[in-house]
Amino acid sequence: MIEFVLFLGLCFVLGGLAVASNPSPYYGVLGLVVAAVAGCGWMVSLGVSFVSLVLVMVYLGGMLVVFVYSVLLVADPYPEAWANWGVAGYGLGIG
Questions:
Q1: Contact (CB, 8 A) for 42 and 9
Q2: Taking Cα atoms as reference points, which of 5, 8, 12, 28 lies closest to residue 80?
Q3: How far, in Å, CA of 34 to CA of 18, rounded?
Q4: What is the spatial distance between Cα 70 and Cα 73, in angstroms, rounded to a whole number?
Q5: Residue 4 · residue 45 · CB < 8 Å
Q6: Contact between residue 53 and residue 41 where contact means Cβ atoms under 8 Å apart
Q7: Which residues cross the membrane (predicted)?
Q8: Distant-in-sequence contacts of 88-93, Cβ < 8 A, 24+ apart
């Protein structure tokens, strides 16, 4: 069980790093979803399932609306991916 909780903590940190280091909202929303699901799984393992449900419904729902709005405003045909050198440099600098 402790390995699973540590895995969820690692996914939470890497998801936050993915949101912070990527300039493209297309890939940043993937990091947000990973971080939110890992955080909810972590809270369920601690026994606070109601708070986890509230987090999914309120926080993730609201943030996804903001990301969808920003994606519609950007409309970039070739977004920067995590494989670009600039994005990798952001990730290493933040990490």
A1: yes
A2: 28
A3: 9
A4: 5
A5: yes
A6: no
A7: 30-48, 53-75
A8: 90/20, 90/21, 90/22, 90/23, 91/17, 91/18, 91/21
Q: What is the largest CA-CA distance in the chain?
A: 44
Amino acid (1-letter code) at residue 40: C
| pTM recorded for the entire structure | 0.68
Residues with Cβ < 8 Å from 64, sequence gap 6 or more? 29, 32, 33
Nearest to 60 by CA among 28, 37, 27: 37
Amino acid at 48: V
The phi-psi region of residue 22 (left if phi > 0; otherwise alpha if psi is between -120 and 50; otherwise beta) is beta
Distance separating alpha carbons of residues 19 and 35, to the nearest angstrom: 9
Cβ neighbours for 45, distance < 8 A, ≥ 6 positions apart? 1, 4, 5, 8
pLDDT bucket at 80, cuts 50 / 70 / 90: low
